[in-house]
Specification:
The complex is a heterodimer of chains A (about 160) and B (about 260). With about 160 residues, chain A is an all-alpha fold. Chain A contains 2 helices and no strands. Chain A has one domain. Chain A is rod-shaped and about 200 Å long. Chain B is globular. The chains are: A mainly alpha (about 160), B mainly alpha (about 260). Chains A and B meet through α1 of A and β2, α2, α3, α4 and α6 of B.
């Protein structure tokens, strides 16, 4: 237990080491540790945010899919309706066209019948005139009369 | 062991407990304490400073992780106990713990190892454990004491400090008694701080020396004592640090 100047020397050493620790050891280490703490906290927060965003994106994509399906169904229904409508329209148009054609044909037929009739009428008149001529030519000849009649018959 | 001395048990013990001294009277210096404590401190703190300079906030290396673990453990102790703002307390606690731990750990070197090596080199006395030198423990505890008083003045101001000295714990009417109590309390602090460390390490070293005297029987005894001593080494370093923190927190918090 001999106290001497060593005490002062050790106190100086102590002060020197405290100074080194205070200036060069503790501040950079404390900074590194708090920086790392912040880094880790930020990373965890980012991860959490990413997870949340993924969840949201999943929800959004499901929504979009559902919308798309609904829209597609709508479009298909509209197309089917339109198709049916077009078929219906075509049917109507065809019917109209057919009626027109039929009417035209009927008119033509009627015209031709009329024409034929007129022609026949003309012919009958001619024949009557011709017959009368024959009759007038061979008035006395019964035989010839008969012959004429037969010829007339053949004509008819 | 120094050659030429009679090889008695007491001579052996005394030899092991004698410092390498230069000078006379008060101005004598224990070179062994100064050199060992200085070297250990320089290696530890300059090493830590170099490591801290390269410290990154990214993934730490093994050494950085180890040092960070140590200093954050000490910082946690400081935060739990000391609620002031002084930037001195944590570095001081780190210094105390690391330095005292290393100096105490010198006790685990077999007692004859270093004196024998140095004896061959012509140095005949060498106490390798600086904490068995009361000069070192008092040097540290008195430094702590000075910091404590200065911090008390700084935090509370001269008036507040004096008010606390004269009125705690019995009030202003019992001022002389309060002053006496305060003096005893404050003087007891550095003395108990240093003598606790010194006594523990001195006694531990003494037991090592006594075991070393047992001849062949030292073999089964030195190891268990060394293992047990690891506990004391760590505990004493921790106690010195913890009490320092407590004293400084008491100095910076008014308890009245």
């Amino acid at each position: 237990m001999n106290i001497n100047a060593t005490l002062i020397g050790e106190a100086i050493w102590f002060a020197v080491f405290i100074w080194i620790t205070m200036k060069y050891v503790w501040p950079p280490l404390a900074k590194a540790m708090s920086d790392r703490q912040k880094l880790i906290a930020d990373g965890l927060a980012a991860g959490e945010r990413g997870k949340h965003e993924l969840e949201l994106a999943g929800k959004r994509s499901a929504d979009a899919l559902r919308d798309a399906k609904a829209k597609a169904a709508e479009i298909i229904a509209a197309a089917e309706k339109r198709g049916a409508q077009m078929v219906e329209e075509a049917k109507v148009a065809a019917k109209v066209e057919a009626d027109k054609v039929v009417a035209a044909a009927k008119a033509e037929i009627a015209q031709q019948v009329e024409q034929a009739r007129a022609e026949l009428r003309g012919r009958v008149a001619d024949l009557a005139v011709a017959g009368a001529e024959q009759i007038l030519k061979r008035e006395v000849d019964a035989k010839a009369h008969a012959e004429m009649l037969t010829a007339l018959k053949q004509e008819l | 062991m120094a050659s030429g001395e009679p090889l008695t048990s007491s001579a052996y013990i005394v030899h092991h407990l004698t410092n390498l001294t230069v000078g006379q009277g008060f101005w004598a210096l224990h070179l062994d304490s100064l050199i060992v404590s200085g070297l250990l401190g320089l290696v530890a703190f300059v090493g830590m400073a170099m490591l801290a300079r390269k410290a990154t906030a990214g993934v730490p290396g093994r050494m950085q992780a180890f040092v960070e673990m140590l200093v954050s453990f000490i910082d946690q102790q400081v935060k739990d106990t000391y609620h002031g703002k002084s930037p001195l307390v944590t570095p001081m606690a780190i210094t105390i713990f690391v330095w005292v731990l290393l100096m105490n750990a010198m006790d685990l070197i077999p007692v004859d190892f270093v004196p024998m090596l140095l004896g061959m080199a012509g140095v005949h006395f060498f106490k390798v454990v600086p904490t068995t030198d009361p000069n070192l423990t008092f040097g540290m505890s008195l430094s702590v004491f000075v910091v404590m008083i200065v911090m008390g003045f700084k935090v509370k101001g001269f008036g507040g400090f004096m008010h606390e000295v004269f009125t705690v714990p019995f009030g202003a009417k019992m001022a002389p008694v309060n002053l006496l109590f305060r003096l005893i309390e404050d003087i007891a602090k550095p003395i108990s701080l240093s003598l606790r460390l010194f006594g523990n390490m001195y006694a531990g070293e003494m037991v090592f020396i006594l075991i070393a005297l047992l001849g062949i029987w030292q073999l089964p005894l030195a190891l268990p004592w060394a293992l047990f001593h690891i506990l004391i080494i760590t505990l004493q370093a921790f106690v010195f640090m913890m009490l320092t923190i407590v004293y400084l927190s008491m100095a910076s918090e008014s308890h009245g």
